[in-house]
Amino acid sequence: MSAVEMRLAELGLTLPEVVPPLAAYQPAVQTGVYVYTSGQLPMVEGKLPVTGKVGAEVTAEEAKGLARVCALNALAAVKSVAGDLDRIARVVKVVGFVASATDFTGQPGVINGASELLAEVLGEKGVHARSAVGVAVLPLDAPVEVEVQVELVP
């Protein structure tokens, strides 16, 4: 078990299986020392635990928790191509999408769920640049979607 996975266990988390693609793409690809994940939905055991728009059917706090799940799924996708999460030199960028009710403006707070998880698990290596974007709808009516870019130790 890698040091990163041991840290996940200390936090009471388990690295999930990679979420299978919903269309024609790969969950993650590596080019050189960088890994780019596809957008990760908050799938748990193959299902979305909640659907709907944040600020309407889903609270901002619920969505923040779902963003944590997205980040955990992103780490699984990174491991699927990097082989070992201990190879992460740093998280470079996170892009989070929030399916938002028309008057919801708390996207940064929602995506903090992903950012905070990465920092808890990876420490300074998990601190990153980020965008948090409100959108009309996401695949499967998911409330949030997160993609991650990491640099690996060569």
From TrEMBL:
Name of protein: LysR family transcriptional regulator
PANTHER family found in the cross-reference section: ENDORIBONUCLEASE L-PSP_CHORISMATE MUTASE-LIKE DOMAIN-CONTAINING PROTEIN (PTHR43760:SF1), ENDORIBONUCLEASE-RELATED (PTHR43760)
Organism: Streptomyces shenzhenensis
CDD domains associated with the record: YjgF_YER057c_UK114_like_1 (cd02199)
Domain Endoribonuclease L-PSP/chorismate mutase-like: 5-147
Superkingdom of the source species: Bacteria
UniProt-listed InterPro entries: Endoribo_LPSP/chorism_mut-like, RutC-like_sf
